[in-house]
Amino acid sequence: MNSHAASPSAFKTEAAHALKKPQLKIALDRATNLLQGRRTEVITNYPEFEEARKLAVQVKDHTLENLDYYLEQFTAAAEASGAIVHFADTPDEATGIVVDICKTREAKTATRVKSMLGEEIGLPAALAAAGIERVETDLAEHIIQLAGERPSHIVIPALHKTQEEVADLFTDKHTRQRSSDTVEALVESARHELRPKYISADVGISGANFLAADSGSILTVTNEGNAELTTALPPCHIVTVGIEKLVPSLEHTAVFLRLLSRSALGSEFTQYVTFFNGPKRSGDRDGPEEMHIVLVDNRRTTMLGGDMAKMLRCIRCGACMNHCPVYSVIGGHPYGSTYPGPMGSILTPALNSLEQAGDLPNACTLNGRCREVCPVDIPLPDMMRALREQQWREKTGSQRTRWIMTTWAYFALHPWLYRLAVKLILPSLRLFKSSNNRLKHAPLARSWTKDRDLTLPGKKSFIDQWHSGKTN
Ligand code: SF4
Question: What pLDDT does residue 98 have?
Answer without folding.
Answer: 98
